[in-house]
Every structure is written in structure tokens, then in C-alpha cells.
User: What shape does this take?
Amino acid sequence: MPILPLSAMSKLIKEAGAQRVSNSAKEKLRKILEDRALEISSEAIKFAKYKGRLTVQDKDIEKALR
Assistant: This one.
């Protein structure tokens, strides 16, 4: 079940300059962003665990992006 709302995808695409956004474009962007967010989160959790923490911090997210 998707986590991010389609309305947010529409806002993001319009912020980038689009006048209109199809539902398929919103759904595709949502899928890509959610998949990438899960990948980043999984890596960030590894960094937090390595440091002996249960809490994922912003620095873990930043390291996961490298």
C-alpha cells in the first residue's frame, strides 16, 4: 500500500514547471520515490546499528546517500 499521497506528487511535478500532470505520472513518481526512500532508510538503519543506536539520525540518512 502506498505511503505518499498522489496530491504531493502532483505538487512536486508542478513545482518543477508542469502545468498538468497525468495520474500515471503521479503514480510512477510515487513508486520511484517510495522505492528509493526504502533503500536509503535501510542503509541508514545499518549505520545507526553500527554505531550502537536504535534511533536513525539525519547523519545516518546523509551517509546512506553517499
